[in-house]
Amino acid sequence: MYGFGNVPGSVKTSSKYDFALGYETGPFAAVVTFDRQNGAADSVTPADTVNYIQGIHAGLSYDFGNLKTMAGYRNYRRTYHTSAANQLSDTYWVGGSYQFTPTFSLIAAVYHQDIKGGTDADPTLVSMRANYALSKRTVLYLSGAFAIAKHDQKVGVSRDFTGYGTTQVGVTAGIQQRF
After folding, report:
1. What is the rounded average pLDDT for all residues in the chain?
2. What are phi and psi of 101, to 5 degrees?
């Protein structure tokens, strides 16, 4: 898919394009995606300092019946027109789910991000969720996560806040109602 930029005379400035390829046979599935968004440069005020943002993703899954396993990889790049440091990282994850009974399941995953350059946090996140279905529409859940960082960097289980230490634990419980 290609999206033209909104800049007269330039099809590249502020444009976006994506590509995805998936394969599925029996219980096995695989997917690879590529996306890139070019910066708006001087076409906006203030000028956009981003040259481009790019992501490459790959994922695999295998369904054994009650057990489903998954693994994935993401390469992320954000480059700039200015002297600002580029943001580069690789993220890896493995996970799975197990349906113990028709009403009870567990989902777990481990994520690790390798941030390039310097003494970055290189965080690892372990998460788990238990679901208990009261009906087809109502589920009780209990979720937990543990995040840890390297190099005495701050980390958090939420992507929106840095956190206050090199480790953090988060737990939540609730009722999910689907309409």
Report:
1. 90
2. -140, 175
How far apart CA 40 and CA 80 sit, in angstroms, is 11
pLDDT tens sequence across 120-158: 778 999 999 999 999 999 999 999 999 998 888 888 877
Rounded to a whole number of angstroms, the CA Rg of the chain reads 20
- The rounded distance, in Å, linking the Cα atoms of 102 and 79 is 47
Q: Which residues of 7-29 are buried (b: 16+ CB within 10 A; e: fewer)?
A: beeeeebbbeeeeeeeeeeeeeb
- Which positions ≥6 away from 43 have C-beta within 8 Å? 5, 6, 7, 10, 13, 14
Q: 153 near 113, Cβ under 8 Å?
A: no
CB atoms under 10 Å from CB of 76, counted, come to 17
- In DSSP notation, 25-73 reads ETTEEEEEEEEEEE--GGGSSSPP-EEEEEEEEEEEEEE-SSEEEEEEE
Give the pLDDT confidence of 2-11 residue by residue, as tens digits. Answer: 888 777 777 7
Q: What is the pTM (predicted TM-score) of this model?
A: 0.84
Q: How many CB atoms lie within 10 A of CB 40?
A: 18
Asked if 156 and 146 touch (Cβ cutoff 8 Å), the reply is no
Residues in the chain: 179
